[in-house]
Amino acid sequence: MPGPFVRLPRPGRSAAPSTAAPSTAGPAGGGPAGGGGWRLLPALLRPRRRPLAAAAAWSLVEAVPALLSGLLVAAALDRGFLAGRPGAGLAWLGLLGFTMLFRAVAVRMMFPCLAAVVEPLRDDLVRALVSATVTRAAGGAVPDPAAATRLTEQVETVRDLVSALLRSARTLGMSLVAALGGLLILSPVVAAAVAVPVAAALAVFARLMPVLLARQRALILADEDLTARATPILAGLRDIAACGARAQAQAAVESAVAVQAAATRALARAGVSRRLVVALGAHLPLAGLLIAARPLIEAGRLSPGEVVGAAAYLATGLDPAMRVLVGVVGSWGVTLTVTLGRLAETVTVPARTPPGPAAPTPATPTPAGRGGAGRAAVPGAGTPGRPLSGRPLSGRPLSGHRLEVEGLSFAYASRAAPVVHGLDLTVAEGEHLAVVGPSGVGKSTLSMLLTGLQRPTGGRIRLGGLPLEAVPEHLLRTVMALVPQEAYVFAGTLGENLAYLCPSDPRTADRRVREAVDAVGARALVERLGGLDAAIEEPAALSAGERQLITLARAYASPARVVVLDEATCHLDPAAELRAETAFAAREGTLIVIAHRISSACRARRVLVMDGAAALTGSHRELLARSPVYAGLVGHWRDDGAAGGPSSRQVTAGT
């Protein structure tokens, strides 16, 4: 789980998040229900072309028995048993049995290929959905109770159905092609007669699909709505009982249950009509062949062996294919399309690219709010339609931890005014930099850019001589720490919380934790809670300041060499803030402080002032003379204290 800095993958591309309550509208863009799924599925499968190509090749091998079955059965009858040569007939059937060995080998080789597609696909979806949900929540959006349904039921549904469809779609395609192709070789007359009802069945199925998609989507939305309504009610049972609101709560849940049940029945009714497709495309041709067999044989148009061979193609090839079309594509395929379409409304996952050079491209993250907790980049959080490649691995090691920013720009949408524009900045290794400016000027956004949790729309960032996007993900998350305003403490022991980012050696971790506790001034808190072995069962029971002390100590104990404090001391009193910042300044490495109080700037070796139009750097004294914005912030701080308003130590520098 995320620590004081967020361990989430870098952004790529993200669709607009869905609202908490399910919408009855179709996917963005006005397409049919589930239309977004057809855009999302190729993005998930595209980076896995090699195992898909291998699966397709083995599918061709698997189709050999289906292609030859009717021809070999016809030869066994006409050239063997009916010709008085049972040995030849058995030889032809033995050849058919031999071809089954090819199918067995192909099926055995197929499953590793499918596993190489399905399991990474599920991981991509989980990572993207978790990141998108955390991003939205940290950005100030209303919590989405339906996110739990997406993460548990819908993602697992996609994984299971993609696996099932990849297995079954091969049977559908290869059986249909083999049956019709074999019929065409065996008897063009029969093949032409069979093609007419098959085409009619496919046309009926095509007309039926929009109805199935719409009703499946209605069922998924009803499931999400039921989750969204029931979750707060179940969480607030005490309040409901205390307020005497049992009837209202029951009515709210019952109405959602009724809608969900009605959607289930509607989908079941539409599913009954799928039987017509099987009857028209498989049963009718076979029945017609059997009825016409005697006249065709007597007229010399077909031999008995050809009739039996054609029946074999229809019974063992065409009939299973039509059943797969109806039972798999018409059921699982509809569910997969709608579920992927629903997930695509929340987040779009880009294709993973193999290691190699990648240039940064525009990103569209969730708008920034106060602090940076959890506003981690979503895999795929970029400009819609422009996928971003994953972080390439670099063969070059970091040469220190110097940060170099050149022409850095960032906007939250392609037509929006940039929050950061043309910023040039160098932060030397071991430097102490404070960032100040009016509220909403982009300071927290800058912290996300510097730590790789957002992609710039222009310019570049280098860490230790390497482009930030070329630093391997695990290395970047080891050497950089972002401590956001909203402190994260998880259920567990206090020691587990503090040592979460420490090296794996228990002895080293214990020493680093104890040093960190003393350095940031958390010793009294640790003793009050009962020591490092004390259990934290309800993190919310701790005050905001106590949670911040824990996350500060956690970051201090980490191996990070570049620490960014994004208003990470805003809930501490000035004396506690002074002690914590002084500890980080004395700690080995670079410190960047997004200032909550102007006193943080006074303590820094250098200050970056952001005012939306330009950015200036310098010492505290230099900026008092050069920057009206900085002088105004300092003057406002002093004036409020002198005027008997809030204490000067309590006046913020703007967020």
Automatic annotation (TrEMBL):
Keyword Signal tagged: no
Residue ranges of domain ABC transporter in the record: 403-637
Bilayer-spanning residue ranges: 52-77, 89-106, 176-206
CC terms in the record's Gene Ontology section: plasma membrane
Topology in membrane: Multi-pass membrane protein
Location of the region described as Disordered in the Swiss-Prot/TrEMBL record: 1-33, 349-398
Positions with biased composition (Pro residues): 352-365
GO molecular function term, any single one: ATPase-coupled lipid transmembrane transporter activity
SMART domains (alphabetical): AAA
Residue ranges of domain ABC transmembrane type-1 in the record: 52-324
Keywords, sorted A to Z: ATP-binding, Membrane, Nucleotide-binding, Transmembrane, Transmembrane helix
Subcellular location: Cell membrane
InterPro entries, per database record: AAA+_ATPase, ABC1_TM_dom, ABC1_TM_sf, ABC_transporter-like_ATP-bd, ABC_transporter-like_CS, P-loop_NTPase, Type_1_exporter
Ranges of Low complexity composition bias in the record: 9-26, 375-387
Identification of the protein by name: ATP-binding cassette subfamily C protein
Annotated source species: Planomonospora venezuelensis
